[in-house]
Amino acid sequence: MNWELITFVGYFVILMGVALIFYFNGANKDQEDFFLGGREMGPWVTALSAQASDMSAWLLMGLPGSILAFGFGQMWIGIGLALGTAANWIFCAKRLRTFSLAAGDAITLPQYLSNRFATSSKTLQVICAVIFLVCYTIYVASAYVAGTSVFEMLFPGVSAKVTMTIFALVIVFYTFFGGFKAVCWTDFFQGLLMMAALMAVPIVIVATKQNLDTSLLNNVYEYKDASGEMVTCVFGTGLFDASWKDIISGLGWGLGYFGMPHVLVRFMSIEKPSMIKKSSIVAIIWVLISLGSAVLIAYFGRMLIADELLPIGAQKTVFMVMARKYFPAVISGLLLAAIIAASISTADSQLLVASSSFTSDLYKPLIRKDATEKETLMVGRIVVVVIAVIAFLIASSKGSGAQAIMNLVENAWGAFGSAFGPTILLSLFWRNFNYKGAIAGVISGFVVDIGWLLLLHSTGVYEIVPGFIASAVIAVIVAKATGEPDEDVKTIFDSAIEGIRLDK
Fold first, then answer.
1. pLDDT at residue 168 in the model
2. Which has the least CB within 10 A, 67, 125, 237, 341?
């Protein structure tokens, strides 16, 4: 009996069952319920669902695979993410929860920005919604790539397109019926599963006293990537052997958090602003443990299974191979399900945010102003399916390779961070920030990010760094040049700050 497969399939059955329970119990009676969980999420659910939706399968595949192949210099990305996570929770979470209510009970991030500046103009909402739809479609595609890798390992001989189709159908089914509450609650348990899985592998290796030969770290491996180019995998000797470009780019990943809608929406959904402190502690601890464990998996993997993986460019499977190698089938099935958990916990959140932005920021205000609550909910569910299908087409056309997951996520992450990060921060901390400055910040950040990616990517500097800087500078210049905002905009700011002060 294949216990690994039974455990793996059992995970999916439970997942879909949860979605149906929320659906038939009427948990999604209106837009706020379906897209924001009625602002009823507790601190633990908020923290772990935010981190699970953030990290995706990159944490279990992309990061350890890159470190396994190219050494500790790749850790700068993890360091940047850890610092960015902490800064986002400490500086933005409570303010965004309070500001989103003070600015008119916004459901989506574009709604918050429009309400924050007390404007009836839909320009910024439309711009944001378009960026959301483009970037999240690419982002969801990365989840398909990761999920397909696990399915192919469990179902050898089955084509990648078939396994990707199965994975996509699971994500669509779960998101379509479950809504935000189901997403958050299952992401809570999936976050625990991801952390436990990452910790389990290095703990077992140390406990069983595997033969770790550090001299193997110096071995050089070569393989041909999908394009036929020869790739050389040199582990390196330490964290500070990385170039300044790698260090700046790695740390730059942390900037993405300030503009990541599927993370920021968690801050807006928590029941009370006073719960943020507990959530931030839980989230930061989770990130440190999970990232540290991923690094250990790569370190041990280089000494134990590099000869098996690197000559064929299969470094992204290091966690899967080690889970199967050092655990019985019933446990390895659960560990492999952690990768699916990581992929789903990200994709479902992103599908919901993209769908909510379309219905709330495009469909109802511009296409069907008199649309009923029932109609907008149905349109939202249809958009979930449409985005999932387009993402499937993108993912199925991508070439294979160890960096496939990283590349897809990297592009979308950079675009979000550059476009929205500076504008969100300025809206929360600068009383005189205005609507025109916000529009200029979003557009300039997105344009510079994409322009750098297409034209200057060869510089070796991650595009989020120049994109974020350009967005911040241009937003401030335009805001100052166009004068102070109206008094009602300042009143919203003052009301939110007063709410934060009284909540201490």
1. 84
2. 237
